[in-house]
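Example record

The entry below shows one chain as it appears in the dataset: sequence first, then structure tokens.
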Amino acid sequence: MATGRTHRPATRSRGIPEATVARLPLYLRALTALSERSVPTVSSEELAAAAGVNSAKLRKDFSYLGSYGTRGVGYDVEYLVYQISRELGLTQDWPVVIVGIGNLGAALANYGGFASRGFRVAALIDADPSMAGKPVAGLPVKHTDELEAIIEDNGVSIGVIATPAGAAQQVCDRLVAAGVTSILNFAPTVLSVPDGVDVRKVDLSIELQILAFHEQRKAGEEALAAPARPAPAVRGGTAGGKGPDGDVPAVMPA
């Protein structure tokens, strides 16, 4: 089986748009669920609904893969799983290092979805000397002093950064200098990398803030759409409110 260092997927050379690449994992997740239920074929409409996109966009995306389906039958599920997996490079072995084994890093190390999708966690690395040798997800944590040697020995090309923000750029620089060319960044900071290095940023707080924005907007729209409440009945001729010049009678004299 090829390793991540010796072979790169042909996605860019084939001119597949980045927006399509970003949707391929969504299709693969939906197709994998169908495969597990032994569903042999799926229509573009059904698959698009399961992936959360429209069917026209799905058909356009699949045209870049050279897969057009069969009229009246749809797409072969198993073949599409293989085709998309190959396009994403998931038919290879991709050794990954995770740097920063706090709560988030440990959770990532314990995530079972990596191995089933072609990613092998080769090492867990942390700067805290007290963490060295401590088992997490069946692997002993290594100290950051060993980072470069681990990357070279395992042919690592993908690094995951789960450190505090202040340490992220230094870790990134060391990963890149050691030969890592793709980085998944969970640290709440923007990383600076040279050309040829890909960075994907995952910031849960930003996603929550975006959701908060939409919740606030929906609440405002609901308030505007709510029927106006009738003014309370005025009893007597002297009740009123405050105006710029003092008390304003509720009922003006004739």
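Notes for this example: Confidence is low (pLDDT under 50) at residues 1-13, 237-254. The longest strand covers residues 119-126.
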